[in-house]
Amino acid sequence: MLVYTMWFYIFAKKNMIAIYTRISKDRKKQVSIEAQSKKGMEYANSIGKDYKIYIDKGYSGTTVKRPSLIKLISDIENKIISDVWIYDQSRLERNIEVKIVLFTKFKLNNTIVHIFNAPINIDIQTEGLMNIMSIVNGMFVDLTKEKIVNALQINAENGKVHSVAPYGFSSDKNNKYIVNEYEAEIIKEIYSLSLSGVGSGAIGEILTKKGVLTAYNKLSGTLTTTNRNNVLKPLKTINKKDIKWSSTTILHIIKNPIYKGIRVFKGIEYNVPKIVEPDYWNVVNSNLQNNRNNSGSKVKHNYKLKGFLTCSICSRNYYGRTRLNLKDNAYICSSKRHKHLECNNRGINIPFLDNLTDYFLNNKQYEHIINNASYLIKKTDDKIVQLNDLKNKLIENESKRSNIVDAIGDGIIKPNDAKIKMEIINSTEMELNSQIKFLLNAENKSTYKNIINNIRIEFNKDSNVYCITYLTNYNDKVFFTYIFDKSYNFLESYVTNNEKIEYGTINLDMILIENDYLKNNKNFYKSSSLKQPI
Ligand SMILES: [Zn+2]
Fold first, then answer.
1. Do 216 and 272 have their domain in common?
2. How far is the centre of ligand 1, averaged over its atoms, from the C-alpha of 526 (Å)?
3. What does the angle CA 189 – CA 194 – CA 199 come to, to the nearest 5 degrees?
4. Distance, CA 330 to ligand 1 centroid (Å)?
5. Rounded distance from Cα 198 to ligand 1 centre (Å)
6. Do residues 467 and 329 both lie within one domain?
7. pLDDT tens digit sequence for 7-35
8. pLDDT one-digit tens code per residue, 77-94
9. Which uninterrupted H or E stretch holds 81?
């Protein structure tokens, strides 16, 4: 292992060192955050660097989806951070896939990694050693998982576990989670209502009014509860059939990561089928704070798209306006405030545009922008260059696979010799896919601000249609446009490549994008259109 001298350190860089600390949910035998930070600060002081502390409490090292880690990567890319310190390698990662993603990032940005009391140089030898460490760390997680699975199986065989699948799920013959389609629709409605600003209490009332059954209603018998708010702690027995949707139940549903496909059991994450997209789950949860004061059936209007909307006709902002009777619930051009300035563009229904934007984000419609911009990429657009490079490598790797398969078929190589080659191809595929995933997701943190740059709205009076155009941060010359009629029925959507305008030829490339979901779900934005079970 090659170790840099301290002298090199003190004079080579002026940027800050990140002290990255992590502790998982199962805290036994782990060095505390405080102890990790203390050691990191001592180290930073010893090499004379300013430091910034990153803490991921309760997150697993087998995933890159850790808030502080994601922040750290973005700080590295923004050149705020030049060095990263960790207590030991397992703080950073417990999985080879995660390791490859992180160290690729570090290499690209010339980030220097320090472990405990020395910087390391990621030469080939060290990398080999770290790969082994990573496999060992990963095995530790696998072993723990195995132990728990065994314990659960024994309990199940003894009939001790009577755990009921959470609302939205059922279990199949092997006790595995499967999605309960009807309940999944209710879950989706809860998320959608919450995102549109309805508080958890009001959501409960809406479901109760509709006669939607709770998880308890399906069971027979009674339930005895204690009123913890009452000093006498009186016991209350109610018929399970009479239990209504409470604010607490709704909140638990919104906050439960199981609905984005992650079941957390004893601090370990298990994959289960997802009901909502993880990005959407995150958006809904980060919006929860806004709903905190919404009680009863009162709806607080926090306009989600505030600051993102531009009038295509007069270039002024669109702003949200809601009248008391909720009938006039629209984003409108701010020119309407002054009669003599009025541009005559039309307002657009707020839930409609909010939901369309969620659809745009959650169904990754913006990826069409990345894909369709690929043949006109600018060298400066690193993200797209990297993505294309990775995609080409994937194609190349896949063709290697089919060559080997052919070679085996033709008797040129023995299956045993092909085995190692296949393993390399498989692990390369895994690496490439994880890098692509990382570029598309973790790095870009799918929040509005990170993806959407601007939304242009125009009601075209000649053709009687709405044109809603999304501009993203991926490429400012490639737009995504939806066309709806004045009753918000979907007509078509396309990607426009505007790149050529710069070179004097106004020649728009328009690529139609199929949107079967929008075509078949008229009024898809109305959250009250819940289907009842047959
Ligand atoms: Zn206007």
1. yes
2. 26
3. 120
4. 14
5. 29
6. yes
7. 343 343 457 999 999 888 766 667 788 88
8. 888 899 999 988 888 877
9. strand 81-86
